[in-house]
Amino acid sequence: MPDLDDLPCLQPARGGSGCQLSVQAQPGASRSGIVGLQGEALRVRLAAPPIEGRANAQLEHWLAAELDLPRRGVTLVAGSHSRHKRVHLACAVEQVATWLRQRLAAIERAQP
User: Fold this and answer.
1) By the 8 A CB rule, do 10 and 19 touch?
2) CATH number for the domain including 40?
3) Which of 10, 28, 66, 85 has the fewest CB atoms inside 10 Å of its own CB, making it the most exposed?
4) Residue 84 lies in a domain
5) How many CB atoms neighbour CB 80 within 10 A?
C-alpha cells in the first residue's frame, strides 16, 4: 500500500476495491479545478451551481475526466446536500495519489 501521509483526503476503500476521496466543493465558481488541500479534504471549485444536484453531477463528471475513468467509476457516497463530500473512485489508490500529487505540485509552482 502506498504512503498517503501527504494526502489526508485519500483513503483506500474498505474491502480493497478502489479508493475514497474527501472533497470540499465550492460550487458556482468561474471554472472547475483543484484549489488545494483544506484540512483532510481536497478543495475543488465547480462551475456548476448548487441547484438540483448540478454541482454533484459536475464533480463526478470532472473527476472521471481528470482520472480517465468511465463515468460509472465515480460515485458520490456521502454529502449530496453538503459542501463536504466523499467520492468513491473505481481505480487504484496509486493512480489517484499520483494525479493528486501532480496537481498539487502544479498549484504550488504557480503561486508566487
Assistant:
1) yes
2) 3.30.1200.10
3) 28
4) yes
5) 10
